[in-house]
Design brief:
Layout lengths: L4 E2 L1 H5 L4 E2 L15 E11 L4 E10 L6 E10 L2 E9 L3 E2 L6 E2 L3 E5 L5 E8 L3 E9 L5 E2 L3 E4 L6 E19 L2 E4 L2 E10 L3 H4 E10 L3 E10 L7 E9 L2 E6 L3 E9 L6 E14 L5 E8 L4 E6 H4 L2 H10 L4 E15 L5 E13 L2
Antiparallel strand pairs: 1-13, 2-12, 3-4, 3-16, 4-5, 5-6, 7-8, 8-9, 9-10, 10-11, 11-14, 13-14, 14-15, 14-16, 17-18, 17-26, 18-19, 19-20, 20-22, 21-22, 22-23, 23-25, 24-25, 25-26
């Protein structure tokens, strides 16, 4: 029986890991209905959190919509901005992008970004982000939808650990955002409500260990399948990537506003093979999130045309974001299990 879902890890077979090439860092601006994002998740040495994202959305025949979203959380400040932009332009090599308020520039060596963003005087961002070791994608990075792979696709490329330096000014207060980061270049080559009913995302950063995980659960039309990918970095070296990962909500409570059951305790597990020594590695992280950073009503933030389309098909898409201290347990091969404390940004998205 032909399947209507072709998962990146299944297509890759035994070669899960692929490097992120310069071509992978080009903006594709795919035709039809597609959303392309570059997102920088920053965990600062001072214990604060920030993310900056550029979004390019196309819906059929309408003109593309360009947005930035940005957040800073720390020192008693919790600010989120979502602003439409115009005058979007790409560099000749398509690896750098500019718009009214924002500029993302990739260096010729394709290992360092410079990001600047200015929104009135409320938010001014300037930082450099340099890749540590190497990036990854699972296989060719794409999961395809439809029996003949033509209904759409989802694509993700990661730099799982980066070093950052720079500053952010929020409401006149300046903060040093030197620290570590995760970078993700993502493309949703179809309308988002057709892809998944749930998403889970995790970015754990400590001085010695970095963990990342991204999971989506397809809609019932595509079998309600969970598609997961993750990575483990130890001492600035990419140890391995994994797809046999699990996100388990151990305890939930209903959100009366949205009707969704929100996790009170989550258990994340990674299970993979190291890239160099071909040993098994396992990691686990259990968290009872105490600090809810935000609950984002997606329909308040998306462009009007997309909002009307999504409203026709789904109830209320919401994103829940937390930022907490956490401890991860890691075992590589026959080595003793190590426990590492760090900062955890995790996200649960409910679409339908």
């Amino acid at each position: 029986m032909a399947t209507n879902l072709h998962i990146a890890s299944s297509l890759a077979k035994d070669k899960l890991y692929s490097d992120v090439s310069p071509k992978d860092l080009e903006w594709t601006l795919a035709s039809g209905s597609s959303t392309e994002t570059q997102t920088f998740y920053l965990t600062t040495d001072e214990g604060h959190f920030a993310f900056v994202q550029m979004i390019h959305s196309s819906i059929g025949l309408w003109s593309p919509t360009i947005q930035f979203t940005a957040r800073f959380f720390g020192a008693g400040i919790n600010t989120f901005k979502s602003v439409n932009m115009s005058n979007f332009k790409l560099s000749d090599d398509r690896r750098s992008a500019t718009a009214d308020n924002m500029e993302i520039t990739l260096n010729p060596e394709c290992n360092k970004y410079k990001v600047t963003l200015k929104h009135n005087q409320d938010l001014i961002v300037s930082f450099e982000l340099e890749r540590v070791d190497r990036g990854f994608k699972i296989g060719e990075g794409k999961t395809f939808f439809g029996k003949d792979k033509t209904s759409g696709f989802v694509e993700h490329k990661f730099w799982p650990k980066c070093k950052t330096s720079g500053n952010i000014v929020v409401d006149g207060k300046a903060f040093d955002i030197t620290g570590t980061a995760l970078f993700v270049h993502a493309i949703q080559g179809m309308r988002p409500h057709l892809i998944a009913s749930r998403w889970n995302f995790l970015d754990f950063q400590s001085p010695t260990v970095s963990l990342a995980m991204l999971e989506f659960e397809t809609t019932p039309h595509y079998g309600s399948k969970k598609v997961n990918q993750g990575s483990l970095i130890i001492n600035d070296k990419l140890i391995g990537v994994s797809v046999k990962n699990v996100v388990e909500f151990l305890e939930t409570e209903p959100d009366l506003q949205t009707g969704y059951h929100i996790p009170k305790e989550i258990h994340y597990t990674w299970d993979g093979i190291t890239l160099d020594t071909k040993e098994e590695f396992k990691a686990s992280l259990k968290i009872r999130p105490q600090v809810l950073m935000d609950k984002i009503d997606v329909l308040k933030e998306v462009p009007y045309v997309l909002k009307k389309i999504v409203q026709s098909f789904v109830a209320k898409p919401f994103i829940y974001q937390w930022f907490n201290e956490a401890t991860a347990n890691i075992t590589v091969g026959n080595n003793p299990t190590i426990s590492v404390s760090g900062k955890l940004f995790n996200e649960a998205t409910f679409i339908s």
